[in-house]
Amino acid sequence: MPEYYVIPNEDGVKRLMKEYGLTRDQINDDVATVRNWMLTQPHLPRLPESKNDELSFWIEGFLRLTKNNLEKTKLAVESHFRMKTLFPQVYDVNDLSNYVESDLYDYLTMVMFPKHTPDGLKIMYYSFKDSNSQLFRPVEIYKRMRLMLDIYQKKGIDFTGIHVVIDTRNITLSHISQFDLFQLKNLIKLAQKAYPLRLKHTHILFPPSFIDVAKNILKPFVSKKMFARLSFHKNLETLWEHIPRDVLPIEYGGYNGNLDVIREEWKTLILKNSEWFLSNASYKSDESKRLKKKKSFSCEKISFKTLILD
User: Fold this and answer.
1) Is 80 exceeded by the pLDDT of residue 184?
2) What confidence tier does 86 reach under pLDDT thresholds 50, 70, 90?
3) CB within 8 A of 303, min separation 6: which ones?
């Protein structure tokens, strides 16, 4: 998408600052507090001076996502670097130019729509190209989501919540069977700390005939709050009751662009930021230096069948 779609809207930033009762001086003080805290954590990476401004801007994004909660921001920063250590497949950026042209990338559509809703939320959308699950990899869902969110973190956050829209017309039981549900819960728990977005609602479009089976399988592994924010739409009219049509693309009865164009624009954005991804790939946690030993998830035991977007 055009670059300006991921550069913070000034009105959106002002709205968040007013909502949280923030001033620029307070933000600067809080960023400094988090940066100083990072220096006391031996397991966190030491970034070079050349990245000082980038690091401060990045921390400010977490402060916005957590409503300027310092402890949650510290947790998000720590969880981000920890995930890079525990789940290297998700953070693999060595060949993004070939990756975005691959059949694997093409099979999954995952994008953020350009516009905010009137209440300042973003729309995250995903679907599968067809019902053939041979090209489906659960890890792709989280990898693509993190690429998008990291670009927003780099540019600056002007939203704190999202609607998730999933078109399930091509989802089969074969897709569902690839998830390791017992490890899914642990992954979601860590991911929600690393990217503390507030989920407003998850919208399942055109649910398949086996949806009740899928719901019963997933229910024990998803919090009651998340489950309560799940809606099923057999037609677009009920979706429009939640999301205005001027935010949606024409494929879903909206007035905001074409889905194929949005896909290509996100591909361009990922490529445009590939050098930045590479420059940050080595900054991750060293779990052997953690001050207090915490229960961690072994990479060797975690199957990447565990990945899914809640």
Assistant:
1) no
2) confident
3) 180, 183
Q: Closest by alpha carbon to 203, among 310, 87, 61?
A: 310
- For the record, the structure tokens of 288 come out as 């052997």
Residue 281, pLDDT above cutoff 80 = yes
pTM for the model stands at: 0.87
Both tokens of 304, joined, read: 């990447």
Which stretches of 21-163 are DSSP H helices?
A: 24-39, 52-65, 70-86, 96-99, 103-107, 138-155
Q: Is the dihedral of CA 83, 84, 87, 90 positive or negative?
A: positive
Q: Would you tell me the crossing angle of helices 70-86 and 181-194 to the nearest 10 degrees?
A: 130
In sequence order, what are the residues at sequence separation of 6 or more whose Cβ sits closer than 8 angstroms to the Cβ of residue 165? 123, 124, 125, 126, 203, 205, 239, 243, 252
d(CA 142, CA 120): 23
Q: Is the pLDDT of residue 306 over 60?
A: no
Match 């670009």 to its residue by tokens: 151
